[in-house]
C-alpha cells in the first residue's frame, strides 16, 4: 500500500532553492555558512514534520536549563526529553537529548501560530520557511486565551505596569500595591514587547529566562530575550496571531511515516470529549483516504503518558480475525 506520494526531485530542488533564498534574506551570514538561523526550518513539500532530535554532552558547570536555552528548547521540553537527568546539577559527560523535532500545528501556515499545550510559537516568516521558539504561557487561573488576533504596537524598553489582579492581591494582603517598573534588569517584560489585539496581552521578553517553557505568566506569551528581539525586528505590525491549544498532534512525514506527538493537557481547555477520543479524531483526519496499520497501543500510551516526543504510529500489517474500527480497538484494548 502506498502511504504517500513523494515529490519529484526537480520539484524538491525548486522548493529548496526558494526556501534558501528566503533564509538568505532573513540572515545572510548564516545562509553563507550553510546553516539556518536559530529556530528556522525549511518546510518540506509534503508532510508536516520538521527538524531532527540530536544529543549533546554536558560540560562542567552546565545545567539542563542552560543547555535548553542554547539549543532553542524550553524548561518542560528539556525535562520531559531527559527524565533521568538532573535539571540543575547534571554530571559532566552526561548525554542529553535535544527535542528538536516537531509536528506543525493543525492551523493555516500564516503569520504566528501559538500552541499553548506545546508551549511553543511558530512563525511562518517567508515562503518555504517556518521558525519555532519555546514560550511560557498563562499559569492556572490566568489562562492564555485561545483565538485569532494580530500584532499591533511594538515597544522597545517598555515600562511595566502591574495588572489589576496583582494590585487586588496586594490589597487583600494589606500590602502596598506594586509600583510601575521602568526599563532595566528588574523589568519582567524584558527589553522588547509586541502588543496583541487582545487587550492586555503581549508577546514579550523576560528578566527570568529560566522560566521560559513553563506555565508561569499571567496570560502573556514570554520568550527568551534573544528570540523576542529577533521577532521584534522582523514581525510587521498587523501580523496574524492564531492561538490554539492542540495537546495531541498527528501527521505524515515527507517520507511517508505517520507520527504522533502528545503534550500534557491544559485543564482549563479540556472539553467534554475524552482525550483518547480526541486523539482518534486527529489521527483519522491525518489518514485522509488511507487506512494504514496503526499501533493502537502506542497511540494510547502517547495520550496517557504525554512527553512531547514524536512516535511512529505505524506497525507491520498483521492479519486480523475480524475488522474493527479504530474506536473499537482502542476501547477493547483497555479491557
TrEMBL record:
Active site (record annotation): 204, 220
Q: Where is the composition biased (Basic and acidic residues)?
A: 155-172
Q: Which terms does the UniProt entry file under GO BP?
A: cell wall organization; peptidoglycan-protein cross-linking; regulation of cell shape
A single GO molecular function term of this UniProt record: peptidoglycan L,D-transpeptidase activity
**Which parts of the sequence belong to the LysM domain?**
54-98
Q: Which SUPFAM superfamilies match?
A: L,D-transpeptidase catalytic domain-like, LysM domain
The protein's UniProt keywords, in alphabetical order, are: Cell shape, Cell wall biogenesis/degradation, Glycosyltransferase, Hydrolase, Peptidoglycan synthesis, Transferase
Q: Which GO terms describe its cellular component?
A: extracellular region
Lineage, top-rank taxon, reads Bacteria
Q: Which residues form the L,D-TPase catalytic domain?
A: 110-244
Which InterPro entries does the record match to this protein?
LD-transpeptidase, LD_TPept_cat_dom, LysM, LysM_dom_sf, Transpep_catalytic_dom
Pathway stated in the Swiss-Prot or TrEMBL entry: Cell wall biogenesis; peptidoglycan biosynthesis
Disordered: annotated segments? 155-180
The protein's name in its UniProt record: L,D-transpeptidase ErfK/SrfK
Family membership, please give it: Belongs to the YkuD family.
Amino acid at each position: 500500500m502506498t502511504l504517500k506520494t513523494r515529490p519529484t526531485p526537480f520539484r524538491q530542488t525548486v522548493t529548496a532553492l526558494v526556501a534558501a533564498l528566503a533564509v538568505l534574506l532573513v540572515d545572510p551570514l548564516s545562509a553563507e555558512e550553510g546553516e539556518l538561523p536559530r529556530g528556522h526550518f525549511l518546510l518540506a513539500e509534503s508532510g508536516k514534520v520538521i527538524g531532527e532530535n540530536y544529543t549533546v554532552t554536558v560540560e562542567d558547570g552546565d545545567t539542563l536549563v542552560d543547555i535548553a536555552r542554547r539549543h532553542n528548547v524550553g524548561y518542560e521540553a528539556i525535562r520531559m526529553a531527559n527524565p533521568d537527568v538532573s535539571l540543575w546539577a547534571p554530571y559532566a559527560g552526561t548525554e542529553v537529548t535535544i527535542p528538536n523535532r516537531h509536528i506543525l500545528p493543525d492551523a493555516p501556515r500564516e503569520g504566528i501560530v501559538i500552541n499553548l499545550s506545546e508551549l511553543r510559537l511558530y512563525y511562518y516568516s517567508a515562503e518555504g520557511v517556518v521558525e519555532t521558539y519555546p514560550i511560557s504561557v498563562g499559569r492556572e487561573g490566568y489562562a492564555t486565551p485561545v483565538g485569532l488576533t494580530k500584532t499591533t504596537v511594538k515597544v522597545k524598553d517598555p515600562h511595566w505596569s502591574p495588572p489589576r489582579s496583582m494590585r487586588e492581591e496586594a490589597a487583600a494582603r494589606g500590602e502596598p500595591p506594586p509600583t510601575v517598573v521602568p526599563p532595566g534588569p528588574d523589568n519582567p517584560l524584558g527589553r522588547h514587547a509586541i502588543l496583541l489585539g487582545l487587550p492586555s496581552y503581549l508577546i514579550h521578553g523576560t528578566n527570568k529566562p529560566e522560566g521560559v517553557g513553563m506555565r508561569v505568566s499571567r496570560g502573556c506569551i514570554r520568550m527568551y530575550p534573544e528570540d523576542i528581539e529577533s521577532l521584534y525586528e522582523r514581525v510587521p505590525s498587523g501580523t496574524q496571531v492564531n492561538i490554539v491549544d492542540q495537546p495531541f498532534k498527528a501527521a505524515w512525514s515527507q517520507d511517508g511515516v505517520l507520527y504522533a506527538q502528545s503534550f500534557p493537557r491544559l485543564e482549563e481547555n479540556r472539553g467534554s470529549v475524552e482525550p483518547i477520543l480526541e486523539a482518534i479524531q486527529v489521527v483519522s483526519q491525518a489518514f485522509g483516504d488511507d487506512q494504514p496499520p496503526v499501533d493502537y497501543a502506542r497511540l494510547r500510551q502517547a495520550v496517557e503518558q504525554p512527553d512531547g516526543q514524536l512516535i511512529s504510529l505505524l506497525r507491520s500489517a498483521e492479519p486480523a480475525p475480524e475488522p474493527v474500527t479504530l474506536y473499537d480497538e482502542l476501547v477493547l484494548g483497555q479491557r
